Every structure is written in C-alpha cells, then in structure tokens.
Amino acid sequence: MKKLSKKKKLLLLFLILLLLFILFLQSSLARYIYSSIHNFILESQGFYFSSSILKKNGASYSISNWDGVNNYSLTIDVNSKKNDLIWTKSDIQYQINVICPDYVECSTDKSDGIIYQSKKVDSFIVNIHPKSTINDGQVIDVEVEAISSFPYQKKLSAKYKIGVQTKNFSYKIIDHSGDKFFTLELTNSISYYEVHTAFDSYSVGDHLSIEEYLSLSTDKRKYCFSAKVKLSIPSNLVFLDMTNKSYKNMIPGSLETISIDGNSYISSYSFYIDASSSEKVLFYKKDIDKDYSFSGIGSSIIDVDVVTASF
Description:
With about 300 residues, this protein is α+β, with helices and mostly antiparallel strands.
C-alpha cells in the first residue's frame, strides 16, 4: 500500500506540474495573441510605429566590445513607415525609458521625441557610463523602451547584454540624420606593445609595457605597435577629412585611392593607435539625410580591419 501511495503522490505532483506548464503556455500564447491583435488594429487605423532595433514583443542583443572605461553609446532608430510607400499620416510622439543596473549611469540625449510625418524617421542615443570599476568579462544588462503616446499607444523594446573586454579593440560611429559629417571613434584597450621589427636586444614578438615603450627614442618606437588599423572607405558615399591625425600619421605606403568621375578619392589607409588610447576620425557625408550610426550591431559604413599586439 505504501508503494501505491508513493506512486499516487508522484502522479499528483506530475499532474500539478503539467497543469502549471499548460497555464504558462496559455498565458504566453494569450500575450502573443493580444499583442498581434493590438498591432493589427493599430495598423488598420493607418498607424505604424516601428524600429530596426526595438520590437513590439521585445528583442535581445549581445554585444562584447565595451572597454568598460569610456562612455558607451547605443543609437536607436524609430520610424512611422510600414514600407517605402505606406506610412502614418500624422506626427508620432513617443517617450523613452532606459533601465540600467545601479553601478552604471544611463542617460539619453532626449527624454521624448517626435517622428514628423515629413521625415518619417527619428532616433535617440543611449549613453552608458560606469560609476565604478567594471571587470573584464562582466556583462551589463540594459533595457531600452520607446512608447508612442500620440496618436496611439504602442511599446517597442529591446534588451542588451553588453560584455566588457578590457583587453580588446572597439569602435563606433556617432552620426545623426541631417548632420554633414560623422565621427568614427576607435578605442584600443590593450595596455602593452609588441615588437614587429627586431632592434637592440629586442626580438620580434617581444612585449613592452607602456612605460618601457615611452622610454624608447622616437625612432625606436617605430619598431613596436599596440594596434594597427586599416580603414576602407566607400568613397562614393563618404569622404575622409584629411586634417585628422590618423591620416597625417599614416603608415608609409598604405594609402590607396580610387578615381570617380575623374577625381581621386581615398579608399583606404593604415595607421597605428597607441596602447590604452582612443582615436577620432571625421568623415563627410555625400547624403546628409543618411544616418551611419554604428555601435556593434549590424554593419559599419567604414570597414575597420585591426591587428593588435597579442601574447
């Protein structure tokens, strides 16, 4: 009898767990069905509020290129289009919410925005800055929401897992539609140098600390590197500002050009970035309505090829 009683208890426990599982599925399904119906109703009213990043049922992204020291920016787009032929026939007002852990500070360049009918697109920037030391390998959870308030209410959201790699190289592009130029920011978080050409008592592959590197003469520093960067530029779309430091200090022989309509444009060049430092490169846009923002998701208008010192 005891054996039978035990089986009944296990069966009862199984049935309870099965019931809870079914209820959970029904709840998730109900939320999905409600969201789909709500979105259908809004679109039947000619209301379209969407984004390439934020989604109505939420989206998830994993990024692992933050150095954990400098400010990290996420550029979020929103639009009022169903496609290139159909869009909302009014302005859309929306609010922005950002949820961050208490050891980082999150801010936005604006608390709310308007997608004007004439433009059909808008964007905002989320800035993330550490309040205290963040360790290599640590992951920061950030949630971003955009909620329309007029003419109808709809929420778009995304969750980011931003990984910190303090011994790595990262880059981003800061841009807005309507700007004449954008800035490519490159950050080298590696804190040492590698010898690429033997000199004195140093062999190829040897490593030097920043202090050892700074103690060398200017000529001997040329035999070492921390990060070597090659930029490839779509010269039919953007143009390099040739007054920037990276261009003036380019690696000899690395410059490549392309001829467009009889004019010569820079298509690529290479340069070095010092250990634990950043570099900013300015580009002018042929079409100022374009937004070439890049924060690690998708593809960058500027192709960045990097070789870093490694143990």
